[in-house]
């Protein structure tokens, strides 16, 4: 992961677009899951199942993010432009360590893929089937939210406006919610393996990042800079995370 993220950093410096770190972070789980499935000593069917689940989710998300980065080039996502300005004049050096941190997180968060690959239990358990079912729902929800967002952004008439349709009518960040649900599904799947309960830190850590660091705070700060009062009204009326009933326009926030 350190070597991969170093290569990604070199590419980002040449492109002047740090947004490719998100693409690499997503795709790296395919590399890790493939490694675990290849060398793990667990039931082959289980190794194959968790590798497929990880690869489908990982590459779908990476492809979605790649299309966003390619569309933004040569301009960076507003979050990374803000970091570049904040870290000047040493932005490239600081981005190197930021990229390395993302690679370390890949390894840390891949435990729910590793433990099932080591599990020798001779059959797929009901708990693992439940994890697969939850993963299917989460992946479908995230895919729909991303598709709706992409369609909204492609329309020039929507520039400077806030999306309020589909899943985005009921949540300000349905893509983040269903992404988090994917990690809950991996935790449920891993629970069937020895020591699997330890992986509860994965959905908890993702929730912390989404609410406190790289997810909602950075995204909403950029939205407020670009859309102002229109987005403030969206904040007042729409759930931040889980899809929920809308408040009346002008209603006070709790």
Describe, in plain words, how this protein is organized in 3D.
It is a single chain. This protein has 254 residues and is mostly helical. The chain has one domain (2-237). The protein has helices spanning 2-15, 20-39, 44-72, 78-87, 91-109, 111-118, 126-154, 174-190, 201-212, 216-227, 229-237. The chain is globular and about 55 Å long. The model has no long low-confidence stretch (mean pLDDT 90).
Compact summary:
This protein is mainly α and 254 residues long.
The helix count comes to 11
Q: Roughly how much helix do the residues carry, as a percent range?
A: over 70%
Largest sheet: none
**DSSP summary, beta strand count:** 0
Dominant shape: globular
What Rg, in angstroms, do the CA atoms define? 19 Å
* Distance linking N and C termini: 42 Å
Briefly note the structural class of the backbone. mainly alpha
Number of domains: 1
Query: Taking all residues together, what is the mean pLDDT?
Result: 90
Task: Outline the low-pLDDT stretches.
Answer: none
Order of helices and strands: HHHHHHHHHHH
Instruction: Estimate the strand proportion.
Output: under 5%
């Amino acid at each position: 992961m350190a070597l991969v993220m170093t290569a990604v950093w070199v590419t980002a410096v040449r492109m002047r677009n740090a947004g490719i770190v998100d693409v690499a972070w997503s795709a790296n789980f395919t590399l890790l899951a493939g490694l675990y499935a290849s060398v793990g000593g667990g039931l082959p069917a289980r190794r194959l199942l968790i590798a497929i689940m990880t690869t489908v989710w990982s590459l779908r998300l990476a492809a979605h993010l790649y299309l966003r980065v390619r569309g933004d080039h040569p301009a960076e996502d507003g979050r990374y432009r803000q970091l570049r300005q904040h870290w000047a004049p040493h932005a490239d050096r600081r981005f190197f360590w930021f990229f390395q941190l993302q690679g370390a997180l890949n390894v840390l968060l891949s435990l729910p893929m590793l433990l099932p690959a080591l599990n020798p239990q001779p059959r797929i358990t009901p708990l693992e089937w439940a994890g697969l079912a939850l993963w299917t729902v989460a992946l479908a929800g995230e895919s729909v939210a991303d598709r709706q967002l992409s369609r909204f952004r492609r329309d020039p008439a929507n520039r400077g406006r806030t999306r309020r349709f589909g899943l985005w009518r009921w949540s300000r960040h349905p893509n983040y919610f269903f992404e988090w649900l994917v990690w809950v599904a991996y935790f449920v799947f891993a629970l069937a393996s020895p020591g699997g309960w330890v992986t509860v830190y994965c959905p908890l850590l993702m929730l912390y990042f989404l609410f406190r660091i790289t997810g909602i705070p950075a995204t909403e700060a950029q939205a407020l800079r670009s859309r102002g009062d229109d987005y403030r009204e969206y904040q007042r009326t729409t759930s931040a995370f889980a899809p929920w009933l809308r408040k009346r326009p002008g209603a006070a926030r709790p």
